[in-house]
Every structure is written in structure tokens, then in C-alpha cells.
Design goal:
This protein is mainly alpha-helical. It contains 4 helices and no strands. The protein has helices at 11-21, 29-43, 56-76, 82-92. It starts with 10 loop residues before the first helix and ends with a helix. 11% of the residues are buried. The mean pLDDT is 75.
């Protein structure tokens, strides 16, 4: 009896799949640029607003998951769905 091991989606594997889906030729340049900027901000060790500023410093850290969801939504809005398929293939690798 074969058992499938459920693979957990780590944040880095999801970022990797987003990066690989940027190479899809059917995605518009504007979407690719926006998603590339979001990915760079997610993996960047430098904050735009430093954390020592009382409330706003931590607010930009809270925005990171929201930006990640926006990047997923931008790439899933393609009409043919090929970027979603490419992202699923990247998650398997």
C-alpha cells in the first residue's frame, strides 16, 4: 500500500514557486514587475520602516503576508490559468 506524504508549503517554497511563475511568457510585464517588487520586499532583510518606530515599524511586518497574498492573486488572475499550473509544478519540485 502506497502512502502519499503530504508536503507542507513553507513560505520559502511558496516564494520559490512565485519566482518560477514569473518566467511564464503569457503573464503581462506589469504584473511581473509588481510581483517581482513584492517578492524582493518579502525576502529583503531591510525594512522600509525600521522597527524601533513604535507602531509603524511593526505594521510593515504585518503587511508582508498581505503582500504575499496580493502576489498570488495577481498571478492567478491570468485568464488561461497557465501561471497557476506552472506554480503547482514548481511546488512539486
Amino acid at each position: 500500500m502506497k502512502m502519499k506524504i503530504k508536503q507542507t508549503k513553507t513560505p520559502m517554497s511558496q516564494v520559490k514557486s512565485l519566482i518560477l511563475s514569473l518566467f511564464n511568457t503569457k503573464t503581462s510585464g506589469k504584473k511581473k514587475l509588481m510581483v517581482a517588487g513584492i517578492i524582493l520586499y518579502i525576502i529583503s532583510p531591510i525594512d522600509f520602516v525600521p522597527d524601533f518606530i513604535p507602531v509603524v515599524g511593526y505594521a510593515d511586518d504585518v503587511i508582508l503576508p498581505i503582500l504575499f497574498l496580493v502576489a498570488n492573486k495577481l498571478l492567478s488572475d491570468d485568464t488561461d490559468g497557465s501561471s497557476g499550473q506552472l506554480r503547482k509544478e514548481a511546488e512539486k519540485a
